[in-house]
C-alpha cells in the first residue's frame, strides 16, 4: 500500500518536473510579453497589451511575418508533392538500388542545418544565384522533403495496392490512379507531413539567416531585434511565433489524427 502510494506520488512529481522543464521557459516568455515596463525581467509590474500593439504596428515585423508564412506554406507544398511522388515511385515500382535511394532521401534528416545551409550558400554563390526568399524556400524544401517522404512512405501498405490494382482493371490511367486513388487514401499522411513541414519551416533560423539578404523571415528579424537588447516587444514576437506553432499542431491533431483514429 505504501509502495503503491509512493509510486503514484513519484509519478506525479516526475510528470510535473518534466512538463515544467518543457513549458516553464515558454510560460515566462509569454508572461513578460505583457510586462508594463521597459525590461522583460522580474518583478512583473502589471499587464499591458502595449507591446503586442507595437508588434502589429511594426511594418518590418509584419513583412517578415508574411515572408515566413509564404516560405513555410510554399516550401511545404513543394516538399509534400516531391515526397509523395518519391514515396509512390519507390513503394509501387521496382527501381534500381531502391534501398540506397531511400537512404539518400532521408539522409538530410541526419545532417546539421548549419552544414546544409553552408553547402547551399556555396552552391548558390558558385552558380551565381542571388540570395532571396526563393533560396530560403529551396533550403526549407531540402530539409522538409525527407520528413514528407518518410511519413508518406511509411503509410503506403499492401491493402492500398489492391485498390490501385482494381482501379487499373477498371481502365484508370496511371496518373489517375496516382492522383485520384492513391493520393486521397494517403491524404491524412500527406496533411500530417504538410503541417509538420510548415511548423518546422515557420520558425527555422539558420538556413533563413544564411540564405537571405534583404527580405528576411520572422526568426531572422527577431534575431536583429535581440542584437539591440531585450525588451517586452521581443517577448511578444516570440509569443506570436509560439502561438502560431501551437495552432498548426492543434489543426494537425483535429483535422488529421482524430479523423484517422475515427476511421
Automatic annotation (TrEMBL):
Protein's UniProt keywords contain Nucleotidyltransferase: no
CDD domains: TM_PBP2 (cd06261)
Membrane topology: Multi-pass membrane protein
Pfam families named among the record's database cross-references: BPD_transp_1
Regions crossing the membrane: 12-34, 69-91, 103-127, 133-155, 190-214, 234-257
Gene Ontology cellular-component annotations: plasma membrane
Domain ABC transmembrane type-1 residues, every copy: 65-252
UniProt-listed PROSITE patterns: ABC_TM1 (PS50928)
Gene3D superfamilies: MetI-like (1.10.3720.10)
UniProt subcellular location: Cell membrane
UniProt KW keywords: Cell membrane, Membrane, Transmembrane, Transmembrane helix, Transport
Biological-process GO terms, alphabetical: transmembrane transport
Coarse class of the protein's main subcellular location: membrane
Entry similarity comment: Belongs to the binding-protein-dependent transport system permease family. CysTW subfamily.
Protein's recorded name: ABC transporter permease
Originating species: Thalassospira profundimaris
